[in-house]
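Kindly inspect this chain:
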Amino acid sequence: MEPGDKHIKGYERPILSRYNDPCDVIWLATANRLGMHIRRSPLVFSATDGSGELQLSTQEHLDADDCLAQMLLHEICHWCTNGIETFQVRDWGFDLDGPLDFREHSCLRLQAWLADQVDLRVMFGPTGEYRQYYNRIPAKALEPIDDSAWEQAVCSLATEAVERIQKEPWNPHVLNAMHATAKLRHVVAPYVEDYRSETDDDPLPTIWKV
């Protein structure tokens, strides 16, 4: 029995679509809705030029628990915390070579508040050295850690940022993306216990389990 013309030699399958991580789709669409254009580059960690273009490092240069959603949320929180006008300012108006700006900690509190709305504070935590402050933020994200003037300034600005994030241009896009990510977690949950990494001897659980 012969297959006839069902398998033609030299056939080239047309590629009509691209597979994308569902979480990336949610957050890249959110960026677009906010007028932001994401570019991945191994030459930077994160940078914005004031035109709406946001460069983020490529996945292989990030920590294992970092993802586009978490990095993009952090940058959105910077924008909201520093003020809507900083969309048109390089790096949201930060002096990257200067001393720590209290607005960085305010941004982290906004980030924690947003994550708390969908019970994903761990997944949406920041990378790098700022994680140590993020991990100290109380269960109520706008409560100060201590009675220092620094914490008073941080929490005051964070409170204003929480109010702003619930207004245009960020609302409803950011919170919608948070809830969509939480739905992904719900979909994945029944499979997490049986998940095995394709990498031999991988010591880390999937982020969806944390």
Observations:
- The beta strands are 37-40, 46-48, 53-56.
- The helical segments are 22-33, 68-82, 102-116, 131-134, 149-165, 173-192.
- The first helix runs from residue 22 to 33.
